């Protein structure tokens, strides 16, 4: 047998596979499975496994492998099976929702990660209790709707807002439970004392405000009375606004005029470096699109940008100014200077080597290998 070296550019498929890693590839020891299988088994299907770590004869996998019963566990029917569930931590909330909605059996193993959203999903308990207390029986069609209602309640705010509220509530919960009191439902006097504690620790108005809305949100989605609507709480919140704190000196925006952008583009007009061209493209599109946010730009897919004769169309799937996901189109005209976003975008696409119809993120991190600079193969935002 003889070995021949070939350059990476001529061996893209094998090289791509060698760079893929599954950070969520984890499992539990066999004795734990055997103990739980004797306790709650016999388990019939391992929903998150592969050919070398499955605990059941029937299993679902992320990618195709020998013996798999199906790819993507969430596309499979979990009913009529005793499911063994050891999912990636990022999918645990989704697994709980599927178990709840489809009312299927299974044993779910999760890390003891108390700051994670799935650890605090008491909303199902509170909503179900409210439904039963209203006189609805478990065999009623109305009862079957409550799991869907829980999902809708959690989706009543944007993802970033929910994340902010959730962690604000977690901080409150950790503080008050350590002192031996309940965080949900909370007593208004305890919240007022908590705000006093934050101010005593040097907090400004903003953490107080965030704490209030986090506690308010947690009570509202669980159908509980809002304890922040109290004179003690509102008075402490107003006092926080009047507390003096260090003045923040805001920096001037760097793009107050086009001169700086033109200078940058002139300096790198002959550059074929993908990293430089990528950053210039993002800067020009953000400026020409009336100061698009970084998150809006980094979330763009290649397929979200359409090239017309003398302008670009950017379709923003998600935007802070588009709360109800109606979609937002931004038109960017072709310019005449060296800082033309239209021409810079075409140059970037050529250097990045995008294929027509690609659903990859438009702006991804880059890696260097020798004199070569390329976008990483993983579909990840820049």
From TrEMBL:
It holds the Pfam family Dam. Keywords: DNA recombination, DNA-binding. One of its GO terms (biological process) is DNA restriction-modification system. This is Uncharacterized protein. The keyword DNA-binding applies. Transmembrane segments: none annotated. The lineage of its organism: Eukaryota, Metazoa, Spiralia, Lophotrochozoa, Mollusca. It comes from Mytilus galloprovincialis (Mediterranean mussel). GO terms for molecular function: DNA binding; site-specific DNA-methyltransferase (adenine-specific) activity. The keyword Mitochondrion does not apply.
């Amino acid at each position: 047998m003889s070995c021949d070296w070939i350059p990476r550019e001529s061996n893209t498929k094998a090289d791509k596979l060698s760079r893929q890693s599954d950070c969520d590839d984890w499992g539990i020891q066999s004795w734990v499975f055997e103990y739980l299988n004797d306790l709650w088994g016999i388990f019939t299907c391992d929903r998150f496994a592969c050919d070398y770590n499955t605990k059941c004869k029937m299993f679902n996998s992320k990618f195709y492998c020998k013996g798999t019963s199906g790819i993507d566990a969430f596309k499979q029917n979990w009913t009529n099976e005793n499911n063994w569930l050891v999912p990636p931590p990022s999918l645990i909330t989704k697994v709980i929702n599927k178990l709840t909605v489809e009312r299927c059996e299974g044993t779910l193993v999760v890390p003891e990660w108390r700051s994670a959203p799935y650890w605090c999903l008491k909303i199902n308990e509170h909503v179900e209790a409210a439904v039963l207390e209203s006189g609805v029986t478990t065999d009623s069609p109305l009862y079957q709707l409550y799991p869907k209602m829980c999902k809708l309640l959690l989706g009543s705010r944007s993802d970033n807002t929910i994340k902010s509220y959730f962690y604000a509530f977690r901080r409150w919960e950790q503080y008050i439970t350590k002192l031996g009191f309940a965080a949900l439902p909370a007593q208004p006097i305890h919240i007022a004392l908590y705000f006093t504690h934050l101010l005593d620790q040097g907090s400004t108005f903003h953490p107080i405000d965030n704490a209030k809305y986090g506690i308010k949100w947690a009570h509202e989605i669980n159908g509980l009375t809002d304890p922040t609507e109290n004179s003690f709480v509102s008075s402490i919140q107003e006092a926080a606004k009047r507390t003096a704190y260090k003045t923040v000196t805001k920096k001037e925006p760097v793009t107050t005029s086009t001169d700086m952008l033109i200078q940058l583009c002139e300096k790198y007009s002959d550059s074929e470096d993908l990293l430089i061209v990528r950053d210039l493209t993002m800067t020009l599109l953000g400026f020409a699109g009336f100061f698009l946010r970084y998150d809006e730009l980094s979330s763009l897919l290649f397929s979200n940008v359409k090239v017309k004769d003398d302008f670009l169309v950017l379709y923003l799937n998600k935007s802070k100014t588009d709360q109800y996901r109606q979609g937002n189109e931004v038109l960017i005209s072709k310019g005449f200077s060296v800082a033309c976003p239209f021409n810079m975008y075409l140059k970037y696409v050529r250097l990045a080597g995008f294929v027509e119809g690609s659903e990859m993120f438009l702006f991804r991190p880059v890696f260097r290998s020798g004199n070569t600079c390329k976008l990483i193969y993983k579909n990840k935002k820049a």
